[in-house]
């Protein structure tokens, strides 16, 4: 068992890349292509679970790629945090893939060329896995570039005018963040003579404080754009909503969290001593409040949820910025929760779009009567996002606030106030959206959708007559199943909160003692 | 470690001009800016090399004296390839954007504009309730020169011409018909005529 683990570490990166190659070769046979993609991602998910259990009981696994030992060669490192993130990301990517394929199979317009979708989606998964496993700053950069390039393609699928417009903003902003990251790597190499994160952890502490500060801020700027932290978050609500629903779901769920993951690594491993606690806490508060205020002004559900996405990044940053073990483990728990909930919401919105013909609260209505199952699928993650008690969002927020209270600091306390306010405003936004799209009579909408109105009155008549009624517009089964699976995962986070919380505690403890990480990675030097 | 001043200066100029160009709205300039910025970063990588390890040789057949650190060169190769790929993608995207909208500039987000316009209309409507009674009438509808020409329900005329469905008129009538608004209802009927004129005009323009 222990011997297998190091062999498994590179597979979450390798398998999707091989799958992407196969999918390209098979681009003429869409069924075979779909099969390859689903099999690949299922295998990655199983491997990720084995890795998580293995790493949790046997400690971090280090693999030196190509046989060159750490200070010279590139290493992949799987510790508890990366294994946990791998598990969540593989689960989400698999569900979204099933959803996307079944949506595409049912799409008559054939707007999205599926032969491009599959390979780029697999490259995206490989890039995300590479970013989670990288033990080397430059390898992290390569992972970022892999999933970014794939995301450029996915965001502009079909190349319609609207998507190209959104794509330009997204691509240019991402490029700027990549260049900042690359510049930071160059300067870090100049200052320390290494890009291996374990060695950096040892050497950065010896640098003068001002040099450390420059490097720290440069890295945070690069990652902050990716994670959509307030002053750098303007691009997200502008570009995400135009993409196809499954693409938006995986972007919203995963890509911003890769940025958060990179920030956690930077804060704990590289710059454990120099702390930017105060600016980070202020950025967290502004991210929360300004994000949610943006959501209030919107009338498109996709845009509303994109703004709440920005807003809730603030919670994770709050936990990271506290820098305590409790704060970190709360941030890790919240990240896992948020990946799943945000993906579930966007998948549900995709079905709302299919069912109701649009995602504008100005024209939707009556979906509660027309499609009760869909409204439940939307309602659970929506409540979860706003932190209503039994769900994991509540647990995550309570953990964060507890971590804040234990700091005995006015800034942390005001963050808690901001967090509570954001949570209430999220509830308001989500409640309003639900009222408008699901509860009201579609005829009351500002721009009523005739199809919905006539269907609604027909449905009401059959209800009053007590007859059974079959909808004309159905949502394909696999889409419902995939979304339900993600919603179910979010409920499991609630029921299984204790083991997950323990796990994130242990992961946070690992992060708090970077010396273990360093000795595991560089220990391979001697053997 | 001493750096050649001229190279450092070149790097600074590349960064500065790259950032300057990227701030433009024209997409070709953004692309040029990105190329300069990317090359500035690559130059930085190669310039800052020096403190790292020496090349990996066994030292018997080949002395490492006077050899440069190979790692930054590996890094810069990767970075150049990535910059190249992204440049190609950007070019394709800009070309596509030009094909679609016939403009080499960053387009505004329609949904964003919609939100901004809705807010503006709301505050305007509240501020001036007796607007229709002035003798200037419809001419004062758009007091700001160069502003987006709007219909009463807050959509730009161009968009209205595309949608032009009866339900929208319906909602707009309901908004307008408040109690005691006898003269206003006629005014709104007049407005509706104007709307139709407006739409036909824009259609003719096409």
Protein described:
The complex is a heterodimer of chains A (527) and B (206). Chain A is built from 22 helices and 2 strands. With 527 residues, chain A is mostly helical. In chain A, 59% of the residues are buried. Chain A starts with a helix and ends with a helix. Chain B has helices at 5-22, 27-47, 71-101, 110-127, 157-163, 166-176, 182-205. Chain B is mostly helical and 206 residues long. Chain B is 63% helix and 0% strand. Chain B is built from 7 helices and no strands. In chain B, helix 2 runs antiparallel to helix 3 (71-101) and helix 5 packs across helix 7.
Could you list some keywords that capture this structure?
heterodimer, A: about 525 residues, two-stranded antiparallel sheet, 22 helices, globular, B: about 210 residues, Helix Hairpins, disordered C terminus
Shape annotation of chain A: globular
The structural class of chain B is mainly alpha
Instruction: Give the radius of gyration of chain A.
Output: 23 Å
Element order, helices and strands of chain B?
A: HHHHHHH
Q: Kindly state the mean pLDDT of chain A as a whole number? A: 85
SS-based structural class of chain A?
A: mainly alpha
> How many helices of chain B?
7
State the assembly state of the protein chains: heterodimer
- Placed side by side, the strands forming the largest sheet of chain A appear as 1-2
Uncertain parts of chain A: none
User: Which two protein chains have the largest interface (Cβ within 8 Å of the partner's Cβ), and how many residues from each?
Assistant: A-B, 48 and 45 residues
The rounded Rg of chain B comes to 30 Å
Number of separate structural domains of chain B: 2
